[in-house]
Amino acid sequence: MSTPVVLISEKEIQVRVAELAAQISEDYADAGELVMVGVLKGAFVFLADLSRKLTIPRTIEFIAVSSYGSGSELTGAVRLVMDVRGSVEDKHVLIVEDIVDTGHTLKYLSGILESHRPASIRTAALVRKAERAEVEVSVDYLGFDIGNEWVVGYGLDNAEQNRTLPYIGVVEPGH
Ligand code: PRP
Fold it and tell me: Which of 72, 97, 99, 152 should be mutated for ligand 1, with most atoms under 8 A from CB?
């Protein structure tokens, strides 16, 4: 397996995550508690770093989905595998994603969480492939816009490999 080529360095990620955390802390300063909902599996690293840099009260939930089809055969249909465990009713919710690609997952999850009647919903994503968008979803706190490359690291995988790399790297499709 070839070594991923660095696209966004560990230092660049840490600086940007700190900036996002400062912005989120400022925006929610008077909001009471923020419920951060990490989308498994990929968001676990971003969620861990982002949540620990916030200066406001926050709790952590996880949600899991699965996409129908695989690889280039993905249909855009998304299925809920695991809902949040605690109640988010009347609470401020921040959905935390590692990557927004077509946008189907984030759109679907926004609908699911909306049905739990939170006080508000916003979204955070470390990276977004803007040119791949198939549905319109807003990302309130975005780390980086990237091109249509196969990225790994910082939670992102290729066939479950490379999730724990501290940087975001590019691999060739199929590697
Ligand atoms: C990735 C990522 C998002 C989704 C984004 O998850 O974590 O949840 O794809 O794609 P979309 O915008 O086209 O819907 P993946 O299916 O790779 O699962 P994983 O997080 O468990 O690796």
Answer: 99
pTM greater than 0.90 = yes
Residue 24: closest CA among 94, 84, 120: 94
How confident is the prediction along the chain (175 residues), in pLDDT tens digits per residue?
679 999 999 999 999 999 999 999 999 999 988 999 999 999 999 999 999 999 999 999 999 998 876 555 567 788 999 999 999 999 999 999 999 999 999 999 999 999 999 999 999 999 999 999 999 999 999 999 999 999 999 999 999 999 999 999 999 876 5
Strand, helix or coil for residue 133 = coil
Q: 61 - beta bridge partners? A: 37
- C-alpha 6 to ligand 1 mean position (Å): 20
CA 99 to ligand 1 center in whole angstroms = 7
What token pair was written down for 140?
């309130």
5-171: CATH class: alpha beta
